[in-house]
Write a structure and sequence with these properties.
Number of domains: 1
Distance between the termini: 71 Å
Radius of gyration: 19 Å
Number of strands: 8
Structural class: alpha+beta
Number of helices: 5
C-alpha cells in the first residue's frame, strides 16, 4: 500500500513538473482556439480604426501597456508564459501613433503571437488555427507544416488594406514554439 501511494506521488510530481495539459498545451498558455476567436474579431475590423482600448476589449487575455506615455501607447502585450527570459506564450500589439498637441491617434499595425507546446504537431495545429482565423487561404495553410523554419504570406485584406504574415517555428529542449507576425498596411 505504501509503495502504491509513493508511486502515485512520484507520478503526480512528474506530471506537474512537465507543466503541460493533455493536449500538449503548456501551463500558462491560452487555448489556441480562444486566441483564434479573438484574431477573427481583429481580422474583421478595419485596423485603421483599432485603438489600444478597442484591442484590449476584444482580447481574451490581459494586455498591458508596454510602451506608453501620458497620451498614448505604441505597444501593449500579455505577459503569458515566459521561461528563462524567452516568451513561450504571449501576444504583443504595436500601434502607429500620430500626435497632435495633447491628443494622439492610435492605429494597430502589427501583432506578434508566440505559442508553445510540448510537441511539434500541437504547435503546428495551433499556428494553423490562428492563421486560418486571420484570413490565410486553405492552400497557404497547407504550407504551414512545422518543417520549414520560416514562411511568408501576403494577401489583400479588403477595406483598402494588405496583409503580410510571417510564421516561424523553433525547437528548444522539449518545447516547440511557433511565432506569428501579422501586419496590415494601407494600399
Amino acid at each position: 500500500m505504501k509503495l502504491q501511494r509513493l508511486l502515485a506521488v512520484v507520478f503526480a510530481f512528474a506530471v506537474a513538473a512537465n507543466s503541460q495539459t493533455r493536449d500538449g498545451r503548456l501551463e500558462g498558455c491560452p487555448n489556441p482556439t480562444t486566441i483564434a476567436a479573438a484574431l477573427d474579431k481583429v481580422q474583421h475590423s478595419r485596423w485603421q480604426d483599432l485603438t489600444v482600448e478597442r484591442v484590449q476589449s476584444m482580447w481574451p487575455t490581459e494586455l498591458l501597456g508596454a510602451n506608453c506615455d501620458t497620451v498614448a501607447c505604441s505597444s501593449i502585450e500579455s505577459k503569458g508564459r515566459i521561461i528563462d527570459g524567452r516568451s513561450e506564450c504571449s501576444e504583443a500589439f504595436q500601434f502607429d501613433v500620430k500626435r497632435e498637441g495633447e491628443r494622439a491617434t492610435e492605429r494597430l499595425n502589427n501583432i506578434v503571437i508566440h505559442y508553445s507546446a510540448s510537441d511539434k504537431k500541437s504547435t503546428t495545429d495551433a499556428m494553423k488555427t490562428m492563421a486560418r482565423a486571420i484570413g490565410l487561404s486553405d492552400s497557404d495553410l497547407q504550407q504551414i507544416s512545422g518543417e520549414e523554419s520560416q514562411r511568408d504570406f501576403h494577401w489583400d485584406s479588403g477595406d483598402g488594406e494588405l496583409s503580410t504574415l510571417f510564421v516561424e517555428f523553433k525547437h528548444k529542449g522539449t518545447t516547440w514554439t511557433g511565432t506569428l507576425r501579422l501586419s496590415r498596411f494601407p494600399k
